[in-house]
């Protein structure tokens, strides 16, 4: 069986060595680049199952590379995990808005790093058993093929947007706190700013159009997906 592949774009040799050792022990095939240009060349030749991306690179900002991937039809579905020293809430928001599926701040806990990588690679769409569907109003979701349809038309969501919508669909009509959504979308051990959920919610609403208005904010509590009208 082919090993899952990960490309790391990281210019710190020490961090790269630690991450490579951790991930290779987990059974991943690791490649690396230390610049935006070098990384994009490798991505264009053979997209990996996951891109682990630093932001402060010698020839540019990783955010710009992430936006470039999101605009490229051949690469926009590539899962991206940003691992960077930039830890302010605004930095995290900008990273997610640029198209990152996950965001981790250096220095990182090695067990959490491996767990997050494992989660993203495991959720990557691929062959599997008969698809499981969620449905509400005009929305349909396949949890095994990671596809979403709105009134029969496909909706392009990032991995995290998909997971946030999945959680809302699974508990349609129930109010969920930001912490609840993070725990079920990212995993119970994840440490991430709770307001990051607001960014994903905003994107989901925009992409769902009129159906997105059903994603309601409950002040001082969280969010809910209003039940579809019959």
Describe the structure in your own words.
This protein is an alpha/beta fold and 230 residues long. It folds into 2 domains: 5-123, Response regulator (Rossmann fold); 133-225, Winged helix-like DNA-binding domain superfamily/Winged helix DNA-binding domain (Arc Repressor Mutant, subunit A), CATH 1.10.10. The protein has 8 helices and 14 strands. The strands form 4 sheets. A 5-stranded parallel β-sheet has the order 2-1-3-6-7, sandwiched between helices. The protein has a 4-stranded antiparallel β-sheet with strand order 8-9-10-11, covered by helices on one side. Strands 12-14-13 form a 3-stranded antiparallel β-sheet. Helix 4 packs parallel to helix 8 (196-208) and helix 6 crosses helix 7. It is globular, with a radius of gyration of 18 Å. The relative contact order is 0.11. The model is unreliable at 125-131 (pLDDT under 50).
Task: Supply database-style keywords.
alpha/beta; Rossmann fold; 2 domains; five-stranded parallel beta sheet; 230 residues
List the helices and strands and how they pair.
Layout lengths: L4 E5 L3 H13 L3 E5 L2 H10 L4 E4 L2 E2 L2 E2 H9 L9 E5 L4 H9 L4 E4 L4 H14 L9 E4 L2 E4 L4 E4 L2 E3 L3 H12 L5 E2 H9 L9 H13 L6 E4 L3 E4 L5
Helix pairs in contact: 4-8, 6-7, 6-8
Give the helix tally.
8
How many beta-strand runs? 14
The CATH fourth-level homologous superfamily of the largest domain: Response regulator
Structural domain tally: 2
Q: What's the story with the biggest beta sheet?
A: 5 strands, parallel
What best-fitting shape do the alpha-carbon axes yield? globular
In CATH, the architecture of the largest domain is: 3-Layer(aba) Sandwich
- Series of H and E elements: EHEHEEEHEHEHEEEEHEHHEE
Strand order of the largest sheet: 2-1-3-6-7
Mean pLDDT: 86
Unreliable residue stretches: 125-131
N-to-C CA distance: 47 Å
Which structural class do you get from the secondary structure elements?
alpha/beta
| CATH topological fold name of the largest domain | Rossmann fold
Task: Give helix % range.
Answer: 25-40%
CATH class of the largest domain: Alpha Beta
